[in-house]
Amino acid sequence: MHQIKINSTTGSELLTTQNVKDYVRIDTTADDALIGEMISQSRIWCENYISRDIVAKNRTYYLEKTNGVFDLPFGPVASISQVTIKGTTTTDYEILGLDNVTIELDQGPAERVKITYVTNGINNPLIKQAMLQLISVYYDNRTDFVTGVNLNELPSSTKNILTSFKSMFV
Length: 170
Fold this sequence. Notes:
Layout: E1 2-9, H1 17-24, H2 32-50, E2 57-66, E3 69-71, E4 77-85, E5 88-90, E6 93-96, E7 102-105, E8 110-119, H3 125-140, H4 156-163
Antiparallel strand pairs: 1-2, 2-8, 3-7, 4-5, 4-8, 6-7
């Protein structure tokens, strides 16, 4: 069993309300709060699609059992705050990999492992473009969908842009 939770979001959004208004060509301030919510919604959707954090976060990951080597989801990882095995804190581990996402426990197999860590987030123009396209779709399609009406999925260009960032972890 694997569990993951977000303890806190430490980074800030990649896009501003003005970025979105310029892209979607919105002249009024009436929808600024709505646009702010859509920025967060699109970022969360993109993070879940690529299985990586776009905005830096503090996370906790729990493993019921491990063979001693495992990857942390939603990297790249900036730092490991704490590793506990059966409730006891340990420093007997090694951080491996290009983005510090792989942990190797010195003791090998273990049970009830909990890792608290901080992710870097990703600031990339392609991700910003994907988010802008997604927000544009959200903004233009704010009404409830009607049963029986042909609906389009999210723009394929959004998925195509994000594919190169996609992690196969989750």
